[in-house]
Design brief:
Elements (H helix, E strand, L loop, with lengths): L1 H16 L2 H21 L10 H16 L4 H23 L4 H21 L1 H4 L5 E2 L4 E2 L2 E2 L3 H23 L2 H11 L1 H6 L4 H27 L1 E2 L6 H14 L6 H16 L6 H15 L3 H16 L4
Antiparallel strand pairs: 1-4, 2-3
Length: 306
């Protein structure tokens, strides 16, 4: 309970610690990394195509907002369209394993990138979708601080869904599938169906984050569906710790805060981020969050019981 109160207080204070647009970006990229970790850390499937879900929802939400829908409906519309896309991609790719699954998802993401670039009349091509409004049934949320607090309940809902999933019987089955799929099948679990549902949930949470990201910036660039976006979120998840869930939020904070701080000094912020990534991989085998949890557990075990 104290940790929950501390986390809630941090969410409320965050836009006063950093500027509101960056504050919401930290949470959205964190949710994106957590969504990927649901698939990578709890099912064992590495996706290099999650930019397709993040970007599809960003475009859809932006276009629906420009059509006059309040931002929650625009975002939910983006989630709905993206879930349909994820259903098709998941159906065709979920039976693959390892690097083959990663390459198939990357191929589908590149197809989405090509389509987004070609549909210039709808997506704006390289110019993107500009002038995306933020409204809430007549209320103007153009102020970044106001939009942060308006979007926060949707973000918290995404966090809760991810957390509840991994702590549910469904999440325990996913871990069993990751550890030994053949044994899970022998116990009577339809493992392909469980992996497919996890894929849809991961895509849906990515879409929720992507739709809010588009409205947060009032602009959608073509890079939201680029393969580098998928690579960036994979790096965030690994930095935080695979299979820790909350590590994705920490990994996103490290990457974004480093980029924000270093971009004021140099354009080569990616070099510093890469160095941090290498050091974390070498020194923290379970990622930052995973290693901290492991150290805490060892310390508690070392304390003699009275």
């Amino acid at each position: 309970m104290p940790l929950l109160l501390l986390f809630g207080g941090l969410l409320l204070a965050l836009p006063h610690l950093v500027y509101p647009v960056l504050a919401l970006d930290l949470l959205l990229w964190g949710l994106f990394a957590m969504a990927l970790d649901l698939l990578l850390g709890y099912v064992g499937l590495l996706s290099f195509g999650h930019a397709a879900f993040w970007g599809t929802s960003a475009y859809t939400s932006a276009l629906l907002a420009k059509a006059g829908l309040p931002f929650p409906l625009a975002v939910l519309g983006g989630v709905g369209v993206t879930t349909l896309l994820a259903t098709a991609i998941g159906f065709l790719s979920i039976r693959r394993q390892g690097i083959y699954f990663a390459m198939v998802t990357l191929a589908f993401a590149q197809m989405v990138y090509y389509i987004a670039n070609e549909l210039r009349s709808l997506t704006g091509g390289e110019n993107g979708v500009q002038g995306v409004p933020r409204t809430f049934w007549g209320l103007d949320l153009s102020n970044p601080l106001a939009f942060y607090y308006a979007a926060l309940p949707l973000v918290v809902l995404g966090f809760f869904l991810a957390w509840r999933t991994v702590r549910s019987p469904f999440g325990h089955v996913l871990i069993a599938v990751r550890e030994e799929e053949a044994r899970a099948q022998a116990l009577g679990y339809p493992t392909t169906r469980f992996k497919f549902l996890a894929f849809l949930l991961s895509a849906g949470l990515s879409a929720l984050a992507g739709g809010l990201y588009a409205l947060n910036h009032g602009f959608v660039a073509l890079e939201v569906v680029h393969w580098s976006t998928s690579g960036l979120v994979v790096m965030m998840a690994i930095l935080g710790g695979i299979g820790t869930l909350w590590g994705g939020l920490l990994g996103a904070a490290v990457v974004l805060l480093l980029r924000d701080w270093l971009s004021a000094w140099t354009d080569a912020w990616g070099v510093a981020t890469g160095i941090v990534f290498v050091l974390v991989v070498l020194g923290f085998r379970q990622g930052i969050w995973g290693s901290l949890i492991r150290m805490w557990q060892h310390r508690r075990q070392a304390i003699p019981k009275s």
